[in-house]
Description:
By secondary structure, the protein is α+β, with helices and mostly antiparallel strands. The chain has helices at about 30-40, 65, 135-140, 140-150, 150-155, 160, 225-230, 235-240, 255-260, 270-300, 310, 320-325, 330-355; strands at about 20, 25, 45, 50-55, 65-70, 75-80, 90, 95-100, 115-120, 185-190, 190, 200, 205, 210-215, 250, 260-265, 365-370, 370-375, 380-385.
Amino acid sequence: MAGDPWSGKESGVAYDNLDYGDRWLLLAGRERALIDRLTATCHRLDDPDITTNIYQGLVTSADAIYHVDRLGPRRYLCSPSEKGACSYEVELEDDVMRPLISGVDAKRYITPSTKTYLLFPYDPFSVTGHLREEANFVISYPRSWAYLKSYEKALRGRESNKMDFDDGWWGYVYPKNLTLHEKRKIIVPRLVTSLVCSVDALGGLYLDNVDVGGIIVVDEVDEFFIAGLINSKVLNFVFQRISKPFRGNYLSANKQFIAPLPIPNASPEQAADVARRARNLQESHTARRDTLVSLAKRMETIPRRVKPETWLFPNLKSKREVEAEAPSTLDTEDRRAWAAKQFGDALEALHEAIGQRLNPGAALDAAFADGELSFSIDGVTVSDRIFESEA
Length: 391
């Protein structure tokens, strides 16, 4: 019947083709055939020839204590979780602080930026991520130790007093993946509508809890090659069919749903080409983000003078003019509503006409001659007859 996804000749799911790794995949027809072909001809993302680690972020069990906002060198803002507690500024040694990336910071082809920092009481460069001993901590980082000591009771009491012991109460409850964050990695947000990622090309960005995951590739593979694939339509197609759905069309991109993603057997030349394109995209999108942030900061200092839409579109009738043309049978309130809709429709049509020309790479230009201001896109005038004084 209409609207039934299981109707039609290709909708049958063979009993012997239900398995997909450790679970069932209720998918039929050409979609299942495509995924089966990709599975048969490609490597999995978690193949040891491609990646060494697919991991989640750090779990402190006391984020309000360990997560602070950086104000400047050695200056951080702590926001306690207790009801009624006020945020306050604290001095902490920068050597024990790490930039912390959450899921909202991880975007497609954009190097993450954050003001949130993590107090990291471990040695990130030791083989096992050794917890800094109290004697060393007190001498090397007295400010940070004093800060942790001020929360000793709360830190000892985490998860039903699980950390209530003298040797190490200042560490995390679940000290996993401690040494991976300093490495180059691919960053993947967990809750997404479409599969996206970016690359931490320099290493040193730390990942927060289960909100965001990391992928470390083997030395012989370029992170940007894998990132280009993860951001592609093909892997997104597979991901959207094997992942777990949540409310609002969100899907889970944790390890179990990205580990099976297909990685093709690309030649060195093909892999290098994909990596080059992905690297260029990340550099360009990151530069665009930074430029927009810079422009926003500058625009905040510029006095604003609101002009009506009819200034930019002189042929556009004002709402009052449109209201005067309303049917005489309408009362005052209905006349205003009618005029507002007519005005909105006319303005939207003008915006749409401009929008159709706003393609990537379009040349934008503004000109002022003989007191007339005009705007053009690729040499085509989209707004003119705006008359202003030279000032």
